[in-house]
Specification:
Radius of gyration: 17 Å
Distance between the termini: 39 Å
CATH class: Alpha Beta
CATH topology: TIM Barrel
Number of domains: 1
Strand order of the largest sheet: 1-4-5-6-7-8-9-10
């Protein structure tokens, strides 16, 4: 049975197959961009639980969330609330995002920014750096083990971090074998699109101390964030609950746990 991810990836892989731009030209453009802000370093440097706050206009499951948002204003709100990093959706068809959203959000703040999209080819990684992204999302379920390893290495050569997203134990093993140091556990089921809020806690113990652990999806408020911090996560990636909040800075601030000793990464 096709999942929502299968349908999204079909379009992205078709677009990648039609992309005839020489990689050498993209590499030259990427090399001319100022150095990336350290995404993983920002998460490691935060006391307590770090928050990656997301600029998100819509979702496939919920529809429009904040279609008329101003990405620069949202980025400033998130920074004011104590977010360690930003995540910006750039997928157009399913999330109504754009590269322009990322450029505007990053220019408005000093935070490192993740390009949240469906990375399937080297050109996607180059494009992320060219638009100013400091990190890329690599979804283990969307890539072969060889693709994951190659794209992870390419991002590293360009000075970017990679958030490797996993959904189960097998994918976590593939991510670790590829050398991922920043792993996100997505609690959303790829078939049903339902959120399993126990998934991240079950998987936290599988990730070694060298990994920065990020919990994704199903973080509705401080109670969820506290539970994930107690399970051993270093950060949460939060979209819907903060982007739809009347007080976005306050919503981010409420997710942060009190400062405390963090394990070395």
């Amino acid at each position: 049975m096709p999942t929502y991810l299968d349908r999204i990836l079909e379009g992205h892989r078709a677009a990648a197959a039609l992309d005839t731009r020489p990689l050498a030209g993209l590499a030259e453009q990427a090399a001319a961009v100022p150095p990336a802000r350290g995404f993983a370093a920002a998460l490691r440097g935060e006391p307590g639980l770090s928050v990656i706050a997301e600029v998100k206009r819509r979702s496939p499951s919920k529809g429009p969330l904040a279609p008329d948002l101003d990405p620069a204003a949202v980025a400033r709100d998130y920074q004011s609330g104590g977010a360690a990093c930003l995540s910006v959706l750039t997928d157009v068809e399913w999330f109504a995002g754009s590269a322009q959203d990322l450029v505007a959000a990053r220019a408005a703040c000093r935070l490192p920014v993740l390009r949240k999209d469906f990375t399937v080819a080297p050109a996607d990684v180059y494009d992320a750096r060219i638009m100013g992204a400091d990190a890329v999302l690599l979804i283990a379920a969307a890539l072969s083990a060889a693709e994951l390893s190659d794209l992870l290495a390419l991002a590293g050569r360009l000075g970017m971090d990679s958030l490797v997203e996993v959904h189960d134990e097998d994918e976590a093993g593939v991510a670790l074998d590829a050398g991922a140091e920043l792993i996100g556990v997505n609690q959303r089921d790829l078939v049903t699109f339902e959120v399993d809020r126990a998934r991240a806690a079950r998987m936290a113990a599988l990730l070694p101390d060298r990994v920065v652990r990020v919990a994704e999806s199903g973080v509705g408020g401080p109670a969820d964030a506290a539970r994930l911090a107690d399970a051993g996560f270093d950060a949460v990636l939060v979209g819907e609950s903060v982007v739809t909040a009347a007080d976005r800075a306050g919503a981010v601030r409420a997710l942060r746990t009190p400062a405390g000793d963090r394990r070395s990464a």
